[in-house]
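**Archive record**
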Amino acid sequence: MMNVFAEAPQGIQTAPHDPRIVAAGYQVAVREVDLSQVRDKESLMLAFLRGLALTESFGRNWDALYDVLTDPDARPARFALVLCDYGHFRRRQRQLGAELEQVLLGAQRDAAAQGRALWLLAEEPVTDPRHW
């Protein structure tokens, strides 16, 4: 499999196995956002609040999320967002998922325009019984 961090970010990509270990070799900071408990926009914003270690002052809306992802002072120049349970989230929350994707892809384009890199990595839970 191609190493995702060897290339410029392109949309929402499949997370490598052990993304933190792989990212470390490329000086990429990693944060995980767990989408498995998201039921609505409020719980989605809470998942990002936790995953990005944001303060309670985080506005919990699309503009605020976009801002924290594109703020050069808040994020390293090489940053990966691992979206845990992303596929299931998209199937459960089609409308919310589509809105989130627009914000994430917009932030990724904005970062690239600033000469920064924002990887968006979808990670699925391990369902293979051999891992139990």
